[in-house]
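Hello forum,

I keep getting stuck at the same step: I have a sequence, I want structure tokens, and every attempt I make locally crashes halfway through. Rather than fight my setup again tonight, could one of you with a working pipeline run this one for me? It's a single chain of 270 residues.
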Amino acid sequence: MSDFIYTLNSSTIRPTPILEKIRIAGEVGYKAIELWHDDLDAHVARGGTLSEVRQALADQGLTVPTTIYLKGWFETTGELHRQELVECQRRMQQAVEVGALHVIAGPAAGFADHDQGAKNYYELLELGRQIGVKPAMEFLGFVEDLNTIEGALEIITKSNHPDGTIVLDPFHIFRGGGSAESIALLKSEQIAICHFNDTPASPPRLQQHDKDRVYPGDGHLDLKRMLNLLRQIGYNRWLSLELFREDLWASDPREVARVGLEKMQAVVEG
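Reply #2:
Ran it on my machine without issues. Output:
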């Protein structure tokens, strides 16, 4: 029996239409699914509705811990910032319509003013409160600046907002040159979700990108240590399988989801 909630990040079976992704996740045995706004927009563009998505989730008994993602909010100012917030607001409203608790908010790609970013994050969190969803600060291992737990924690601390949370991911911790030991700096309520994956020993760390992620247990990361650190701070919520592999996208999505769940279970419960 797991002390975490097994979740499928729908990027793992990306080419599959969203309603099919939801059906597969539920039938394979996941308890939750992360949805991408690109998929939601594509469904609506084909004549579908968000009510259909919400009903499909209910039919499978799935919760939505996050939708993905908000961009452009961190580093912008002035009129450009206002324009980016309009799109962020649209996506947050979508998140609420499908029952999401959080919406993932990505960092700037390059170096950015952390004080301005923290101010903008506070603003985003306040907007989220009005709409009914909590934006979660994500760090990305392959960006120049906000690529560690410490970087994301600095932003939520400086924002000084009670709803501030971060997204954890073993790939991004490794790729950014950080350490899973930094999880000890966090409180469980500061974690919106923990993505789950592994990385190979080769290519070298600085050459790795999303496409290099592998199933949990198929790489070289000490995922059991990471899980124990999460347990030590009292985190027992979502572990979400997040992969971006073209070979998996070309495979049977049900089989990919099934194997992924078994790999997660072997690491978590083995």
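The chain has a mean pLDDT of 98. If your local run keeps crashing, start a new thread with the error log.
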